[in-house]
């Protein structure tokens, strides 16, 4: 039996994958994973406070924070002269869930059933 036409879903999942690419890249690095885990335990931290909790230099942490922020995983707010970073993952989680749901729909349609 032929597989159902999944062309439309494949176009959707391709677009979703493009939207999630920066998230995947940001999450792929162990240092950025550590930063996310640190921020899960704190409402907001500045660069110096994050550096205290890692073996990395201030410039390295700043670089990783920039990537996480560009990926939409962090937000920042300025308090006096300090910039505080906090997790802001709701939109990213929504994008990732949509990608996974569409991928699952394609797999279900392409998997032969009990015929």
From TrEMBL:
CDD domains: HTH_ARSR (cd00090)
Keywords on record: DNA-binding, Transcription, Transcription regulation
Residue spans crossing the bilayer: none
Annotated ranges, domain HTH arsR-type: 12-107
InterPro entries, A to Z: ArsR-like_HTH (IPR011991), HTH_ArsR_DNA-bd_dom (IPR001845), HTH_MetalResp_TranReg (IPR051081), WH-like_DNA-bd_sf (IPR036388), WH_DNA-bd_sf (IPR036390)
The keyword Electron transport belongs to this UniProt entry's keyword annotation: no
SUPFAM superfamilies: Winged helix' DNA-binding domain
One Pfam family from the record: HTH_5
Top-level taxonomic group: Bacteria
Key word Transcription regulation present: yes
PANTHER family: TRANSCRIPTIONAL REGULATOR, ARSR FAMILY (PTHR33154), TRANSCRIPTIONAL REPRESSOR SDPR (PTHR33154:SF33)
Name under which the protein is recorded: HTH arsR-type domain-containing protein
Organism: Paenibacillus plantiphilus
């Amino acid at each position: 039996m032929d597989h159902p036409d999944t062309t439309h879903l494949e176009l959707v999942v391709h677009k979703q994958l493009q939207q999630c690419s920066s998230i995947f890249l940001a999450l792929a690095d162990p240092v950025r994973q550590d930063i996310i885990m640190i921020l899960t335990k704190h409402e907001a931290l500045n660069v110096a406070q994050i550096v205290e909790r890692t073996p990395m230099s201030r410039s390295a942490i700043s670089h990783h924070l920039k990537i996480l922020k560009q990926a939409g995983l962090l937000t920042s707010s300025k308090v006096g002269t300090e910039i505080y970073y906090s997790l802001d993952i709701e939109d990213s989680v929504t994008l990732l869930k949509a990608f996974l749901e569409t991928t699952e729909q394609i797999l279900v349609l392409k998997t032969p059933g009990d015929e």
